[in-house]
């Protein structure tokens, strides 16, 4: 049986570079820190350098401050759920908006995510109710209409009393596709007016990043879907 090649010998194949985590561990970095960096790096928009800064911030912070963060994450996972009516985020069975008797039950604004709902609420220009789809139709990412809360929306309309559905999906490829799919589904309710938010929100952007006045203009300028 041949001996393993010594990397120092001529013609020996150079060994592969060690993985970043292994290199850091060899430099004396705690495995706990490496694990924390890896978890931060999994968050959206967080690269390796930012993950490292966050991890070392947690390390330097007073114990109570770091534990408050841990408790807040734990409480969110234990207590926060989706409203059983509109799928907004809530700590109870029904969210505060659905329970508010001052909201107009005849108008439902359909959004992709709770963060879009919060952006519209921040504009102060809408007093109806909502329905959160929890996503958008994205076949390339494996998201189909059955993955969304469309059936629950249709059930709400079957109960009656709704006169307008505002389709407030993001003005991008996925949002437009979802709006067109919903428009076809909502043809089963001819008495319901179907509108789409105006293009005051730039095409390809996201509602959550829009300024309050832009969101307000888009809602006020909504139009019938053709």
What does this 3D model show about the protein?
The protein is of the alpha/beta class and about 230 residues long. The chain has helices spanning about 20-25, 30-40, 50-60, 65-80, 95-100, 115-125, 150-160, 175-185, 210-220, and strands at about 80, 90, 105-110, 130, 165, 195, 225. A hairpin with a 6-residue loop joins strand 1 and strand 2 (about 90). Helix 2 (about 30-40) crosses helix 3 and helix 6 (about 115-125) crosses helix 9 (about 210-220). The model is unreliable at about 1-25 (pLDDT under 50).
Question: How is the secondary structure organized here?
Answer:
Elements: H1 20-26, H2 31-41, H3 48-60, H4 63-79, E1 81-82, E2 89-90, H5 96-99, E3 104-111, H6 114-123, E4 128-132, H7 150-158, E5 164-167, H8 173-186, E6 193-196, H9 212-220, E7 223-224
Parallel strand pairs: 3-4, 3-5, 5-6
Antiparallel strand pairs: 1-2, 6-7
Strand content: 5-15%
Tell me the strand order in the biggest sheet.
4-3-5-6-7
H and E string: HHHHEEHEHEHEHEHE
Give the proportion of residues in helices. 40-55%
How many structurally independent domains? 2
pLDDT < 50 runs, ≥5 residues: 1-26
Assembly state of the chains shown: single chain
Number of strands: 7
Which architecture of the largest domain does the CATH hierarchy give at level 2? 3-Layer(aba) Sandwich
Quick overview of this protein structure:
The chain has 9 helices and 7 strands, in the order H-H-H-H-E-E-H-E-H-E-H-E-H-E-H-E. It is an alpha/beta fold and 226 residues long. A 5-stranded mixed beta sheet has the order 4-3-5-6-7. It has a two-stranded antiparallel sheet with strand order 1-2.
């Amino acid at each position: 049986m041949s001996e393993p090649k010594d990397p120092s010998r001529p013609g020996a194949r150079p060994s592969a570079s060690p993985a970043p985590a292994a290199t850091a561990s060899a430099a004396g970095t705690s495995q706990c820190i490496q694990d924390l960096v890896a978890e931060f790096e999994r968050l959206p928009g967080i690269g390796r350098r930012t993950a490292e800064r966050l991890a070392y911030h947690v390390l330097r912070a007073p114990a109570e401050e770091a534990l408050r963060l841990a408790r807040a994450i734990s409480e969110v996972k234990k207590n926060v759920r989706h409203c059983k009516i509109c799928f907004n985020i809530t700590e109870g069975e029904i969210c505060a908006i659905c329970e508010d008797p001052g909201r107009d039950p005849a108008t439902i604004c359909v959004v992709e995510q709770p963060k879009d709902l919060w952006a519209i609420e921040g504009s102060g220009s809408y007093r109806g109710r909502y329905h959160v789809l929890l996503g958008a139709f994205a076949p390339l990412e494996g998201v189909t209409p059955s993955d969304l809360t469309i059936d629950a929306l249709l059930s709400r309309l079957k109960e009656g009393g709704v006169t307008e559905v505002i389709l407030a999906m993001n003005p991008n490829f996925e949002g437009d596709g979802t709006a067109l799919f919903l428009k076809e589904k909502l043809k089963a309710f001819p008495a319901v007016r179907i509108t789409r938010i105006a293009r005051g929100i730039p095409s390809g952007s996201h509602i959550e990043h829009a300024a309050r006045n832009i969101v307000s203009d888009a809602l006020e300028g909504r139009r019938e879907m053709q």
